[in-house]
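FOLDING PROBLEM:
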Amino acid sequence: MDEKVSIIIPVYNVEEYIDRCLQSVVNQTYTNIEILIMEAKSEDNSLAKVKKWENQDDRIIVVSRKDKGLADARNYAMNMSVGKYIIFLDSDDWIDINFVEKTMEIAMSDSQIDIVMADAKKYIYDTVVDNIGPEWTKIIYQNEKDKKQLLCFGSNFIWGKLFRRNLFEKNNIIQPILPFEDLAVYPVLISAANKIAMCHTTYAHYQADRENSLSSHRNTYKDLPKVYEYAKKKLKEIGKYSTYKEAFKLSMYIHFRIICLHCIGVENYTQLEKSSPFIAKFMNDNFSDLQKSSYIIYGGFALKWMVNEVCNGIEAIEEHITFTTIIAQMSRPDCAIKMYHCNSFREECINKDINGFLLNYKLKKNLPILFVDFMHECTDILYDGNENYISCSEAFVECGCKEGYESSSYFDYRKITWQSDEYWDLWKTKCIKFINKIERLQIKTVFLVKNKYAQFFKKNENKYSYVYEIEKKNALLDKMYDFFEKNCSMSTVCSLDGNLQYTEMVGRPYSSKPEYMNISFYRKGAVEIQSQLYSDYLK
């Protein structure tokens, strides 16, 4: 394994970060590398720093020229590089010292592998806020269906990946001098590659908070139509457009929305006709069939986080019905009991539970999409003997007293435990009533998302002390999901990856409870939902 690897690093005004970047590169355990630094006449001390590194390591070549941006610098370096494999690295980022070794091990194992995608950690200041990549648990992606998934939902940057040089050369791929140049070439690279491999044993590290980075410039979104046209034209040139047309369209729609939100915010995006008529026309002309209306969520917060990943705050979440059970929702008529909670959202949820909110619910908008999980169904029920049920949810138990309100201790009702046969029989009856309600509302799509409880805190490490109870809850959830799936003809099932079903605090400022998974689990769940939601574009 002795093929040369060219590592290309554009540099401009990064004196604060460049030493960390280059330290990580020169210390690579795989030593047959050339390091091409494209310095763009920085206004700070960057040039002096990279020249110092060049004097210390003869594998480093510094070119100082006034270029036309990131793409121009990369293209120039590509033309002078000699490596059979290429890695693009941004100058404010860094890689693990075994990054080249681990990615090359995979690349050299199969001559058909054209791209190796390593995992990445995203940082705000010194804090890891995201792990990008572990959700792609399959190792090799090579058929059209696999590549369409990566095209639409994969990490669409080209830094921190290992590319076979020939992939660029045989397809004449030159990065356009545009903002979001990665997005312009990513669809071309994915569709043209023979095989794409995942590497989960090393990391690239991404600094997301640098103010002067190109991605922080707010007006760059106005060039998105040029990015779209470049990628479309290039796909046609290499003969891949007809095969990937619909997936390419979906990919551009998903990523363009994210970019617009980053540049102008949710409020301006939802009023795009006013804030940016040109972009509004472009989006309507090219993506009108992909735009959804509104969502209803019945289930836990894990489900809401996944749906938030899907809608990006653009489509309205009309209702999030949580801290409740189908038994309570399908049983109680309106009543005068009011509960107090110091958290206004939890108070609203409790009172929806007590008053059987769904039983009398009417749609505010036509034909929304309903997302369902049963994470809060494994909850004891209070029963007054007169068809009135209250869920003993976490929020309900927390209720306190306030003048004019009741506390949870007010209710002297019989308790039906979630583990009892009585509960299961009652739940099945109310679930049929729930399904009938969905049909009467004429909801066009129901996604059953099979969330369950984690048994581990951190992957395969610390098992929860009450894992026996978790296993019993998960067994009941399996029964509930099977029952709903068999009886709700309009449901689309989203099964989730058990290999990612563990709790981790990275990027989640909540708690380590087993109902809260790691961020890779949520992202892969969102990918599964989107794959079902836009299935016609991924065929």
Q: What stands out?
A: The first strand starts at residue 5 and ends at 11. DSSP finds 18 helices and 20 strands in the chain. The chain has two domains: 5-119+135-205, 294-537. The mean pLDDT is 88.
